[in-house]
Specification:
The complex is a heterodimer of chains A (338) and B (224). Chain A is of the alpha+beta class. Chain A has helices at 2-25, 30-73, 87-141, 148-177, 192-209, 228-245, 301-311, and strands at residues 188-191, 213-217, 223-226, 251-258, 262-269, 315-320, 326-333. Chain A folds into three domains: 2-76; 97-177, Signal transduction histidine kinase, dimerisation/phosphotransfer (DHp) domain (Helix Hairpins); 188-333, 2-Layer Sandwich (Heat Shock Protein 90). In chain A, 59% of the residues lie in helices and 13% in strands. In chain A, strands 2-4-5-7-6 form a five-stranded mixed sheet, covered by helices on one side. Chain A has a two-stranded antiparallel sheet with strand order 1-3. In chain A, strand 6 and strand 7 (326-333) form a beta hairpin. Chain B has a single domain (2-223), classed as 3-Layer(aba) Sandwich (Rossmann fold). Chain B has a six-stranded mixed sheet with strand order 6-7-8-3-9-10, sandwiched between helices. In chain B, helix 3 packs parallel to helix 5 and helix 5 (144-157) runs parallel beside helix 6 (174-191). The chains are: A alpha+beta (338), B alpha/beta (224).
Chain lengths: 338, 224
């Protein structure tokens, strides 16, 4: 900018002096000489004049934008600059949009932070109980007069409490994965049926305990560009929920369809379904259905599922009504890597 | 915060004995960043309402307020700029320019505004919508579903604060519909966009934050 300015002034002066020199050394009539001098002078003046004019306009424009940016930063909308065909209006409206997006994201992340803190305090509270129970029973153990009958019972209780502790720690590990950057994807083109097998195997035991039948229908040839480990975890979480909310001897059906843009993994259960009013809440962090408050869990599974699938460019949707079971669809994009 | 609100909005055609009330006193508030589905039988006034919200049609009575601005107070030019910068329309019949390529169709709203195209974002949209290898074709060479996706890409290209969609999945099979809704939801989360969508599909209506049912130009049900 500065160089341009000096160049312009320099060129103007050059024009002035060389022009003058040529004109004055010409052996012509005096009036022609005067005319040429006048032309050169006016050229110099217009170019300098327009330089200073546009400079002032530009400074005015940037001042206006700066002033309005301050206003936007304070959260005010610039009423007089809306919907005009001017540069300022265009910039201001764009800035307002950016401010809006950022303030929304800020609020969102503050909210998340708050939730995370609440979860940690709840978890630590929950961990305290089994820990102090175990401590108490250990103390009772050190009493020399207990019968072997009592000792057996104490061991049972301690085992139970340890199981509870294990579950809570498992939740803690899961929640630490929730942060998006913890999900380190290793995408590769691999067969979907293998991923499904991993997911089904890890919930098989729970399903067998409740006598729930899991059936999978997937052509072995179907390949999708995805991360096997994480996708299996995502599907496992859905299956886990399906098994949890499906009564004994129910059914869980997994089927795979290849669409135009996505490959869809459908998970259908014969469980109790989800109330329409809460259907969008189930993917929220820490959302627990009121009626399931007594069951284990912290409402992290489906949130994690959605994060995993979203970060692979897919999405999860659910279709359900109360009493009729739920249909989850996990959609993974078909596109092949570049 | 409410980004869209209407107050006692009416649209009447004709005069008394043959008066048609397309909209009959609609008072509505739509929160920023939400996804609203409008349902109702055909001829109930859904499309009229959507056009009013986007300033494509003028009401006979009542007012529409978008992002703190009264639409009735705007001149024709001002309204055109407002639509260009704030609103993305997805029409049921696509409304693509037949003599422009897919790429030119998508960037049209951005270029009309004299802005430079965000190439990176555009590539992302084209990729997610599966249009990356069709950018140089003319719209009539594409299938209905693909044209629909082009019109969605066009609505998203300018990153508008509000997306108004008139049955964006009307001509798509149920499977592709779900894909399209998924895409809309993802981008709206990214840019804090508000979506108002007319739909006949119960499944889509179910996945919205809020459903509004309109019959005979009146809101008969509003469910969160």
């Amino acid at each position: 900018m500065r160089i341009c300015k000096y160049m312009l002034i320099f060129l103007d002066l050059l024009l002035l002096f060389t022009g003058m020199y040529i004109v004055l050394t010409m052996a012509e009539e005096i009036t022609v000489q005067y005319m040429l001098v006048f032309i050169i002078l006016s050229l110099v003046l217009t170019s300098l004049g327009s330089y200073f004019y546009f400079r002032r306009r530009f400074i005015g424009f940037s001042n206006e934008v700066c002033r309005n940016t301050e206003e936007i930063l304070h959260g005010h909308s610039i009423k007089e600059q809306q919907n005009k065909e001017t540069l300022t209006s265009k910039m201001i409206m764009e800035l307002e949009k950016i401010e809006d997006i950022f303030s929304f994201q800020l609020a969102e992340s503050q909210n998340e932070k708050k939730e995370l803190q609440e979860m940690i305090s709840e978890l630590t509270h929950q961990i305290k109980t089994p820990a102090s129970n175990i401590q108490m029973y250990c103390e009772m153990f050190s009493d020399p007069d207990i019968s072997s009958e009592e000792a057996k019972q104490f061991v049972m209780v301690i085992k139970q409490q340890l199981k509870k502790l294990e579950f809570l720690l498992d939740v803690l590990v899961k929640s630490s994965r929730l942060e998006n950057d913890m999900i380190n994807l290793q995408m590769e083109n691999s067969r979907l049926i293998e991923t499904l097998a991993v997911a089904v195997n890890s919930v098989m035991q729970k399903a067998e305990l409740k006598g729930i039948d899991i059936s999978v229908s997937c052509r072995p040839a179907i390949q999708v560009y995805h991360d096997m480990k994480w996708t299996a975890e995502a599907i496992e979480n859905i299956l886990d929920n399906s098994i949890k909310y499906t009564p004994e001897n129910g059914k869980v059906l997994i089927s795979v369809e290849v669409g135009e843009m996505y490959t869809v993994i459908k998970i259908k259960d014969t469980g109790k379904g989800i109330e329409t009013a809460h259907i969008n809440d189930i993917f929220k962090r820490f959302y627990r259905e009121k009626s399931s408050a007594k069951d284990e869990g912290l409402g992290l599974g489906l949130y994690l599922t959605r994060n995993i699938i979203n970060s692979q460019g897919g999405y999860v949707s659910v279709h359900s009504s109360l009493g009729k079971g739920s249909n989850f669809s996990v959609c993974l994009p078909n596109r092949t890597p570049k | 915060m409410n980004i869209l609100s209407t107050k006692n909005l009416t649209k009447h055609y004709g005069a008394e004995p043959l008066l048609v009330k397309a909209l009959d006193g609609i008072t509505l508030e739509i929160e920023q960043g939400s996804f609203t589905a409008i349902v109702g039988t055909s001829g109930s006034g859904k499309s009229t309402l959507l056009h009013m919200l986007g300033g494509l049609d003028t009401p006979t009575g009542g007012s529409v307020c978008v992002d703190g601005q009264e639409l009735s107070g705007m001149g024709k030019n001002e309204l055109a700029i407002f639509r260009r910068r704030k609103i993305g329309f997805i029409f049921q019949n696509y409304n693509l320019m037949p003599n422009l390529t897919v790429y030119d169709n998508i960037v049209l709203p951005v270029e009309l505004d004299g802005r430079s195209v965000d190439k990176e974002y555009l590539t992302t949209i084209a990729n997610t919508l599966g249009l990356e290898d069709k950018l140089n074709r003319k719209p009539h060479k594409l299938s209905g579903g693909q044209q629909q996706r082009v019109s969605i890409a066009r609505a998203l290209a300018a990153k508008p604060a509000i997306i108004l969609a008139d049955e964006p999945t009307g001509n798509l099979d149920s499977h592709t519909s779900q894909e399209v809704i998924g895409l809309l939801k993802t981008t709206s989360e990214m840019f804090h966009q508000t979506i108002v969508m007319i739909t006949h599909n119960e499944e889509i209506a179910q996945s919205a934050d809020r459903t509004i049912r309109i019959e005979d130009g009146k809101i008969v049900e509003s469910r969160w």
